[in-house]
Design brief:
This protein has about 600 residues and is α/β, with parallel strands linked by helices. It has 3 domains: about 10-90, Roll (Urease, subunit C, domain 1), CATH 2.30.40.10; about 95-340, Metal-dependent hydrolases (TIM Barrel), CATH 3.20.20; about 400-585, no CATH class. The chain is built from 17 helices and 29 strands. Strands 18, 19, 20, 21, 24, 25, 26, 27, 28 and 29 form a 10-stranded mixed beta sheet that branches. Strands 1, 2, 3, 4, 5, 14, 15, 16 and 17 form a 9-stranded mixed beta sheet that branches. The protein has an 8-stranded parallel beta sheet with strand order 6-7-8-9-10-11-12-13. It is elongated. The two termini are about 50 Å apart.
Length: about 600
């Protein structure tokens, strides 16, 4: 294994520069270990977790040029610029999120770092498909701008070019960008019919290096698709929801990523119980968030929380830590860079007072102390204001009557109507939508199921050519007695969702969001009560973390005043997950 000094080049002059740089590096490390040159940092008084031997030992860690260069160096001869007292804490590798949607958290990369790094996360493997899709014709330039200064962030980013929601040409261009390492989530519905664009994207992903993500509960796949996806090179699967999913995912050789994400925490508990019950080796698994709000990161944690939950559910704590460190690094063939506290690896180190319940007291990235006691010590020096877009409204002709529920079918006696019923928790572990019979009185749908009143939902196309596409139905997940909440998400298609009880109020709320690039707004009696603007291509807020969290919570508070009782993720995040399933189940055109 060698130190990476800078990017390789094939020119003779570049090769000479590379050799010279590496020569200086190896000489410097030799001189440091022999007491002739100064190292950057010595972390002392540690209980170091050896993830290879699965033991803990007392010792120290020496750091030079962002890397660990020695364990337990001879302190009688070593020279060092800074000494850090580890207070007898456990030293574990920096935590890794094996699969997260970098864009779907609504925070720009710097603000997102404020949320995850204090939790001990120093590396993420990220999708960016919604951002790319939202950027449209500007996708390549926008993505390049988003990641331009990723080296200034207090965490490492490895990204994936979209395997869906964009064109082959855009995917090809993004695969050439840094820090993109492979092909993201593949679209199983089109792969199953032999779409040529999918073949071409897969070929591009294989040429890039072979990292290709697959997702969809594997028990929902046909036998052909279950064989086809890993056969063409899809190596990782984060979409498991139950024991049978895990069994098939592991059996077919997929690196299986256990996620917690948006939704009920009971889902991840089901999966962890299955791992314990079936005694599946932990090396088959990585841990990830997939989709999660920054609010939940602030209140519950990130990979630190998942590791702690693993231990709580009966997985050995060291195995749980390895699932979020070494096993993830190995899956991506990067265990020579990070994933263990050994010489030659980046000095990404978390100091915690427990292995069973991770409590990141200190977080180091590249040997620099970046967080202490769950607070980021220095903000990333990156300005994203140049990516803010100008609103382009599209609902000039929308009228309240467009949001009225029209029955799919009326019973023979004219007393019942069949309508759509959508469930905010429907993706994955419950059915996302159903067709249900509800009362019909005086020709109007009564919004209740089995006597339980429900809110209405409208799915509204933003830019219509001809007749605007609108789907109206009933909704589980938000229950307000008055007013409305509306949100917009442009990927893969520009659509709104509005929830309320009155068509006129819902229409007014939609018009308020339409005046923005994107975001979420709550209205009551046609007065805006809370708003979260997403000014960067309609998917990312151009604001610091504290402001983003405050606006997210203000939406929940406004809805609570109107009768909603929310649990788990903030309402805005719950509503945004709907767009995934609305597209998947054909409710967008």
């Amino acid at each position: 294994m060698y130190q990476e000094v800078n990017e390789r080049t094939n020119t003779p002059a570049g090769q000479t520069d590379q050799v010279h740089a590496h020569y200086n590096e190896v000489r410097a490390i030799f001189d440091i270990l022999n007491g002739k040159k100064e190292a950057d940092l010595l972390l002392k008084n540690l209980h170091i977790l050896d993830v290879h031997a699965e033991t803990v030992y007392q010792g120290s860690i020496l750091v030079y040029n962002k890397r660990i260069v020695a364990l337990n160096p001879d302190e009688a001869i070593v020279k060092v610029r800074e000494v850090f007292d580890g207070e007898g804490l456990y030293a574990i590798p920096g935590l890794i999120d094996a699969h997260i949607h970098f864009d779907a958290q609504l925070a720009h990369p710097a603000a997102f770092g404020e949320a995850i790094v204090p939790c001990g996360t120093t590396t993420i493997f990220s999708e960016c498909l919604d951002f790319v899709s939202a950027a449209g014709d500007e996708a390549v330039q926008a993505t390049e701008a988003l990641f331009r200064h990723h080296d200034r962030l207090p965490y490492r980013v490895f990204a994936f070019a979209p395997g869906k929601k964009t064109t082959v040409e855009v995917t090809d261009a993004l695969l050439k960008l840094d820090p993109v390492i492979g092909l993201g989530e593949l679209a199983h519905l089109t792969y199953s019919v032999g779409n040529d664009d999918d073949f071409r994207k897969s070929a591009l992903g294989r040429v890039k290096g072979g990292f290709m993500n697959t997702h969809w509960g594997v028990t929902a796949l046909s036998d052909m698709m279950l064989n086809y996806m890993p056969a063409i090179g899809a190596f990782a699967n984060h979409d498991v929801w139950k024991e049978d999913d895990i069994e098939k995912s592991v059996r077919y050789g997929l690196q299986t990523q256990i996620k917690f994400g948006v939704g009920s925490s009971e889902v991840i508990k089901i999966m962890l119980r299955a791992i314990v019950k079936r005694k599946w080796p932990a090396e088959n698994f990585q841990l990830c968030a997939d989709n999660i709000s920054v609010d939940r990161l602030q209140t519950q944690g990130h990979m630190d929380w998942v590791i702690s939950l693993c231990a709580e559910m009966g997985i050995d704590p060291i195995q749980a830590i390895k699932m979020a460190t070494l096993y993830t690094a190995r899956a991506f063939r990067m265990d020579n860079k990070f994933g263990s506290l050994t010489p030659g690896r980046f000095a990404d180190i978390v100091l915690t007072d427990s292995l069973a319940k991770i409590n990141p007291r200190y977080v180091f990235k590249d040997g620099e102390l970046v967080a202490r006691d769950r607070k980021l010590l220095r903000q990333a020096d990156v300005d994203y204001s140049g990516m803010v877009k100008t609103p382009v409204p599209g609902l000039h002709d929308l009228a309240p009557e467009h949001l009225d529920i029209v029955p799919l079918e009326i019973s023979a006696d004219g007393r019942q109507a069949k309508v759509y019923l959508f469930d905010v928790y429907g993706r994955g572990h419950l059915k996302f939508y159903d067709e249900v019979w509800v009362p019909l009185r005086d020709g109007k749908v009564v919004p209740e199921v089995d006597g339980v009143p429900l809110n209405r939902i409208s799915v509204v196309q933003r830019y219509a050519k001809g007749t605007r596409h609108v789907v109206n139905g009933l909704f589980k997940g938000v229950a307000i007695e008055r007013g409305a909440v509306a949100t917009f998400w442009p990927a893969p298609k520009a659509y709104f969702v509005a929830v309320g009880q009155d068509s006129a109020e819902m229409c007014h709320c939609l018009r308020q969001v339409d005046a923005q690039v994107g975001g979420c707004i709550v209205t009551d009696r046609r007065e805006v009560k809370a708003a979260l603007p997403l000014d960067i291509y309609g998917v990312i807020a151009n604001m610091p973390l504290a402001e983003l969290v405050a606006k997210t919570r203000a939406i929940d508070a406004a809805l609570a005043d109107m009768g909603n009782r929310n649990e788990g993720e903030p309402v805005v995040n719950k509503l945004l997950t709907l767009f995934i399933s609305l597209d998947r189940f054909g409710f967008m055109v």
